[in-house]
């Protein structure tokens, strides 16, 4: 055999070996990117994107994954970005964000998260299919939340984070100023599937929200004139809780079939209108109040300092706001809107949208006058 033929054979073998290695790597990557959240009983919840490998800057972070679930709507996407950025910069833990959104928002979100300032963040984008809410939500133009399916994403946590035993859920109108690990380590009592911040705690009670009626009690959310509500024997004066930030034991959640229980009360409300006509908060609250009545643990009140969005005025002292672990702009005055209290604190964590689709709404001189 000539020397030339030997070289050709060696070259062919080398090319073949290279193609085999390339093929195996491609299959491995495809399998990783195509991991599905599978539940034949529910519609949707399909992962659209995943950043699987922690970059070099995360190698020193804790190995235990801390899943943080956030619902991201197109018109509030800047809020989601600010939440993620604030959490990432206050912890050394291995946080993975599960961003629940609608399919037409995914590309916009992915482009935003490609910004240099956000490249180190680990995330998974999960598509939420509104069909899972059919027959469970009554469309009422007077209640805007009824038309926002993503507000119900928190009811389906085990399906959004299928492999986790524990997870954190938080709204998109918050900023985190403490280490998220502390919130994740909130102790839950045996048999409790979630921990919330009660509305009667010392932090929330500092602020009175005018026009909200019984803001801190069950009667502000449920219609006690209805026999089905009275039959539950829940005291109307029971302190309510805020579902915008909570820690969930997903093992207990699944064992107690919490999602099914929540859907049951959603359906009954469609049929019987069980919620209060002067609803004090989000329409996601009433079914949670029923299902978790005297069956939930509590988070540290400083991990949900809320009502920052109840008015444009500043209700807390600068020292108190600085000490808070989490600031929550629940209410009509969002920090990305025209007027909002403490908007300058929120803006520290906001990263401008590289696509230009989302922009802050500010009055002339607002930024200059921020303290």
In short:
With 371 residues, the chain is α/β, with parallel strands linked by helices. 29% of the residues lie in helices and 14% in strands.
Tell me what you see in this structure.
α3 links the parallel β3 and β4. By secondary structure, the chain is of the alpha/beta class. α8 crosses α9. Strands 1-4-3-2-5-8-7-9 form an eight-stranded mixed beta sheet, with helices on both faces. The N and C termini lie far apart (84 Å). It has a single domain, classed as Alpha-Beta Complex (Spore Coat Polysaccharide Biosynthesis Protein SpsA, Chain A), CATH 3.90.550.10.
Descriptive tags:
disordered C terminus; Spore Coat Polysaccharide Biosynthesis Protein SpsA, Chain A; 29% helix; 10 strands; globular; 371 residues; two-stranded antiparallel sheet; alpha/beta
| Uncertain spans | 25-43, 52-59, 209-213, 364-371
User: In CATH terms, what is the architecture?
Assistant: Alpha-Beta Complex
As for the number of domains, it is 1
Q: Can you write the helix and strand succession as a string?
A: HEEHEHEHEEHEHEHHHEHEHH
Work out the helix count. 12
Gyration radius (Cα, Å) is 24 Å
What do we call the CATH topology? Spore Coat Polysaccharide Biosynthesis Protein SpsA, Chain A
* Biggest β-sheet: strands ordered side by side in the sheet: 1-4-3-2-5-8-7-9
Q: What is the CATH level 1 assignment?
A: Alpha Beta
Number of E-state strands:
10
Distance between the termini: 84 Å
Considering the protein shown, what is the CATH homologous superfamily? Answer: Spore Coat Polysaccharide Biosynthesis Protein SpsA, Chain A
Structural class: alpha/beta
